[in-house]
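Schema walk-through. Below, the input block comes first and the output block second. Nothing else is stored per chain. Lengths vary across the set, and this one has 313 residues.
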Amino acid sequence: MLINMRNIILGIVLSSACFLLSACSTDVDIIADYKEQAVIYGFLDISQPVQYIKVNKAFLGIGDANQMARVPDSVNYKPDDVTIELEQNKDGNLVKTIRLLDTIIQGAQEGVFSKENNIIYYTNEPIDPNSLYTLKVLNNKTGYKAEANTNILKNLTYLLRSNFSFIRPDGVYTSTSIEWNTVPYGKIYQLTFRFFYKEYRTGIADTAYKSIDWRFEPQYATNTVGGLQLKKTIKGEEFYTFLKSVKSAYFADNTVKRIAYRGQLIISAAGENYQIYKDLNAPSSSNFQEKPIYTNVKNGIGIFDSRVTSEDG
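--- output ---
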């Protein structure tokens, strides 16, 4: 679902024109009547033991929006005021209803929105990959409802696994090719190579085990039926170029000795709703391009979809 921002931008333009001309006989109020809307962001993932769903509320007011966003009551529902549930349906029949619990996100990063009382909803219930799940939000005080649904992505399977070798003893670069099959409902896939290494200093017994992620550009399936073959070739020369690009962030201390000891493949997949959302919010070359807002939430805004992550080794 696309929400056009044309009317909102038109209101801002009219208000700005009155200010510049200083001759408008009628004030233009661009603050419309408040309409309750839930803002939902969540992915169901069978590769994770806990499912987390972020549910906030849109806010409206006169003043600095950045300041209002930092007030917890502006963006958070009170947990006692809302009922948030997952309905599991299989073959068109309701299997069970899962009530989501609330908790506080610890260690939230600084940003535009308040990190105080940063509420998130969760469940420990296992997710069935053969079911359809519907997220339902109900404001018990106002009667407001929002909902969204998603099918579940199954675990990915690698078609080719091999030992990583980016350079031969004679200094010639080598390459490693990775292949995998797409899964039903999966649209966007991203391969990550996780490079593990050891750090130690001469005369110090302790060894630090660290890792760094090399993420590749996402790949898109031509359909969401599943069973398509995707492939990525990791070139040895590009790997060393990547290490050089992160030297100042990870390898700046030249007094530390480092030894590579293994690599790991990670493939993440997500559904078509996320793919559309991501593409629409990609950086634009124009500062004046109007972008629609994509959502698959009925009577709300946000994204509710499925994803899965598979690790090799």
